[in-house]
Amino acid sequence: MKPVKLIPCLFALLLPQWGLAAPVSLEEAIRDALDHAPALQSAMAARNSAREDRLLGRAWLLPYVVTSGSWKSMQQDVVYDRPIALLPLANEMNMKQQKYGIKMYQPLFDVEKWSYYEQGKASEAMGEAAFRRSERQTMLAAAAAWLDVMRAHDRLNAARASEQAMTRLAEQAKASFDVGLEPVNTSLAAASRRDLASAQRIRAEQALEQSRAVLSSLLGHDADVAANATPQLVPLKMKPQQEWLQQVDHADQVQLAERSVDLAEAGKLKAIGAALPKVQFVAGWDREKSSSGTFGTGSHTQTGYFGVEMTMPLYAGGSTWAQQRKSEQEKIKAAADLDEAKRSTQLAIRQAWLQWQGTGYEMDAMKAALTSANAEQEAARAGFEVGLRTMTEVLDAEERLASARAGYADSVASQGMAALQLYAAVGELGERQVSEVQGWLTGSVH
After folding, report:
1. Residue 190, CB half-sphere, CA atoms under 13 Å: how many?
2. 230-244: per-residue pLDDT in tens?
3. Contact, 85 vs 104, CB < 8 A?
4. Rounded Cα–Cα distance for residues 26 and 109 (Å)
5. CA-based, 20 to 30 A from 139: which of 8, 156, 162, 323?
6. CB 256 within 8 Å of CB 130
7. CA contacts within 13 A on the Cβ side of 198
8. 182, pLDDT greater than 80
9. Please, are residues 68 and 98 in contact by the beta-carbon 8 Å criterion?
10. Nearest Cα to 442, choosing from 162, 222, 225, 166?
């Protein structure tokens, strides 16, 4: 291979790791995060485990069949206190005994076992609610990381544009100073603004690398974002705050609290059932065979039976009533936790809605500021060329334009994140809502 052909290969090997990362959309990022997140995989395993609790609880209500069997070989040495002449009894006996059978139990009335089934159903529902909450938390984390990368890209583009403009103006100010058209202070001010713009560009590059690292960690592979905050965007439209507050019962936190109440109810039922009679149907069949006996003969016995058994606890050291009092307090605690969950969820909904509203107003304001900054920058440049504006005014206009670009990018990312947080607050965040925000960013949904 010729040396000249090695240059592209070496350049490709020396490219930064992030330069090779493929851009992903918001929907793709969330999908990859859901497939990769260890916390979500743990929640999924816990959900699947909780599903078995309902089956375990149901098993207490179904027939219980057990079989048993035994085989024994026994040797007995007998010593008589006095000889018995009439009966020639043996002093040594060898016996082999076989016993086997099958027995079936079917609960007829057992409140305690019914409580196990209720606990299993509540545990299954709680596992599902916990998984959904973990899923939405993963989606929010991936969306926040994706929007941060988009924001960092726009801020870097603004910093680069500002650096290029400041460099050009610094060179122009120095050239004007060299021929005596500008004072030294103007040349120094332009050089200072250029150096500051370079520092801001470096800071923006580092922020972009950091945000990419976070996104790639969540997705499990190197990733980048190609989207940007276009000036044509308008704030997302949402329902009135009151309609969101009416969905408080669907929130993940409230769902978990309600399942805790169900568990407390089942615990109270179990405590009550421990003090009530228990009735069950019993049926079975046994066979016992002995190969030798006292008189050297064998025998076998076969028994079949069925009937109803009833047990009633009378005294258990006071534990039955103590357990009932404890379960009653646990139910009161679960009910109070449910009220607190509803209150905190209502607050979260109000805060998310106000955040969405505030970022919408901010977007409109930053869009107007960006339009004004563009017009000011163009006017300052044109005025400077004809001698009506000073170099300082042009530098100030360039700074304000860069600041407006960065501020608009921040407001767009914050608006998208506020919308997703509002959906998550009421337990509605899913593929449809993510697609809606993705369409809004691309300008296809308003």
Report:
1. 25
2. 878 888 889 999 999
3. no
4. 56
5. 156
6. yes
7. 9
8. no
9. no
10. 225
Contact (CB, 8 A) for 292 and 94: yes
CB of 305 closer than 8 Å to CB of 283: yes
Enter the tokens of residue 351.
């805060």
Cα(252)–Cα(426) distance, rounded to whole angstroms? 7
Taking a C-beta distance cutoff of 8 angstroms, is the pair 147, 83 a contact?
Answer: no
Under 8 Å between Cβ of 345 and 311? no
Q: Which of helix, strand or coil describes residue 220?
A: coil
Residue 3 reports pLDDT greater than 60: no
Burial of 303 from C-beta contacts in 10 A (0-12 / 13-18 / 19+): exposed
Sign of the four-CA dihedral 366, 368, 372, 378:
positive
Total Cβ atoms within 10 A of residue 112: 17
Tokens read off for 343? 């209150």
Longest distance between any two alpha carbons in the chain, whole Å: 150
**Helix (H), strand (E) at residue 420:** helix 391-425
CB 9: neighbour CB atoms within 10 A?
10
pLDDT of residue 21: 72
Q: What is the pTM of this model?
A: 0.80
Find out whether 139 and 299 touch, Cβ atoms under 8 Å: no
Q: Please, how many CA atoms are within 13 Å of residue 152, restricted to the half-sphere of its CB? A: 22
